């Protein structure tokens, strides 16, 4: 389990770095050569998925209650 958590943290850190690289300049050109970085939307989607997965693995797969409806019985 700890190895899985470490892998997820490593990947998440890589996506955070990629996000910062994209934010610093999505596309640039030097002379006749140009470079376009990865899609920011895809990076953020992957970050959200990894954060969710890391949270689930860290909590032992237990889900938290997101919403409760009080009932008068």
Characterize the structure shown.
The chain has 73 residues and is mostly helical. It contains 2 helices and 2 strands. It has helices spanning 2-24, 40-58; strands at 27-30, 33-36. A hairpin with a 2-residue loop joins strand 1 and strand 2. Helix 1 packs antiparallel against helix 2 (40-58). The model has no long low-confidence stretch (mean pLDDT 84).
Largest sheet data:
2 strands, antiparallel
Cα shape: elongated
> Could you state the order of secondary-structure elements as H and E?
HEEH
Taking Cα atoms only, what radius of gyration do you get, to the nearest Å?
Answer: 19 Å
* Tally of discrete structural domains: 1
Count of DSSP-assigned helices: 2
What average pLDDT do the residues reach? 84
Portion in strands: 5-15%
Strand order of the largest sheet: 1-2
The span between the termini is 42 Å
Q: Estimate the helix proportion, in percent.
A: 55-70%
Would you report the number of β strands? 2
Q: Given the helix and strand composition, which structural class is it?
A: mainly alpha
Task: Give the low-confidence spans.
Answer: none
């Amino acid at each position: 389990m700890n190895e899985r958590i470490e892998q997820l943290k490593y990947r998440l850190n890589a996506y955070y770095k990629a996000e910062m690289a994209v934010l610093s300049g999505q596309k640039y050109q030097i002379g006749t050569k140009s470079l376009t970085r990865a899609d920011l939307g895809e990076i953020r989607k992957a970050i959200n998925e990894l954060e969710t997965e890391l949270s689930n693995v860290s909590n032992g797969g237990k889900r938290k209650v997101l919403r409760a409806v009080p009932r008068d019985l």
